Amino acid sequence: MNDLVEYILDRAISYGASYADVRIEQIYTTQIVVTNDRIERVNVGVRRGMGLRVLADGAYSFVSANSLDKDLLDRLARSCVKSAKLSSLFKREKIQLAEVKCVRDDLVVPSTEKPHVVDLDFKKNIALEVSKFARAFDSRIVNSTVRLLDEYREKIIATSEGTLIRYVTPRTRIFLIVTAFEAGHISSHMDGESFVSGYEAYRKFDLEGWAKRISEKAVKMLKAEPAPSGRFTVIADPDLTGVFTHEAVGHACEGDGIVAKESILTNMLGERIGSELVTIYDDSTYPNGWGSLKYDDEGVPTEKRLLIDEGILVGYINDRYTAFKLGMKPNGGARAQDYMHPPIVRMSNTYMAPGDWSFEEMVSEIKYGVYLLGSRGGQVDTAKGTFQFNAKEAYLIENGEITKPLLDVSLSGLTLETLKNIDAVGKDFKLRSGTCGKGGQGVPAGTGGPHVRIVNAVVGGRR
Fold first, then answer.
1. Residues 8/9/13/17 CA torsion (nearest 10 deg)
2. Which pLDDT tens digit goes with each residue over 446-460?
């Protein structure tokens, strides 16, 4: 395979590219869907292919293929360079890349039960057991859907400058959504767990306890009441803190948005944008993190990137182009979904650092407020600095105590105002897995943080 990588890069340079990088991947996948104890769908597949990106006359071009036939790859390399040269005729400013050292490395995530060799019946039984556990919790559970996913990825990253990296990564994920119904009221709850490992992770994971906790939350929310609307003091749990940090702050810190002046944080390095209690990282080095990786898809070593330091904006996430453009050091922020997509600036594990408040202390000082947990989606505009998230769960806080559940609560506001209105940061910490979407691509990303208290936050509920 190394010979093939060298061949592709040599062809690209011979046709006039000043730089080229290539990724060759083989990806084994499984997806199993179980609804109400019945297997609905089983998909098993393997994909193999190549993605080539070239820089010629100051312009990028990218091409991918599902075949590794040498004659085809030669034609694609020629076409890719030709396309870049044509594109350069219409560019006002030529692309230049920050310099980096070449790397040669071999990285294999250990796994004793590799996803692509584990028996399919074993996987089916996991999904069926979870469905059974969820439905057995309470007679009010009327529907459960389980999705079991796995991936085993072998990847080679190489550049014309001499970088050569081999990655082998197993991943497994499981999701459960439960719906409860009683007396005309309906509620649902969803959660997921992910492992950067093979199926050995399920030997230690309490499937029954996990499924029952999700069912319990769905049943509990049957008693939810309409939420108040207006400005309140709220507490966000680690999941919602992580979603806010990733969506509202992390995306605004991505270098391509800064270069294009499409971020509220453009030209704000060194300025105070939040409370002194707020410190935020994008950390590709977090141990066993869902978004962790030693090198990005340009072969650049990744880092624990400090974005906000005690309320001061101090960093951006960069690839080699945005680093050069912004006069900054490359920090390993280029990622691609797979060989069919070019690398773009992306986050890894984005989180707010813990503080020194206990959860009980935060709650005790609130006379009337809202406790928000998790996120069911929402929307963010990084150029305007606005956001809106729908919480999975919410509870009223009255006189320092958490009381009744609330129905369909959302948190919205201005990103910079919200960062400045954080007046307490918990000492706890939790990092969750997710998929970050951008530019038509999805990559594994971690989000998290501690419990966080926000004053004067905008809360809305369905009436």
1. 100
2. 999 999 999 999 998
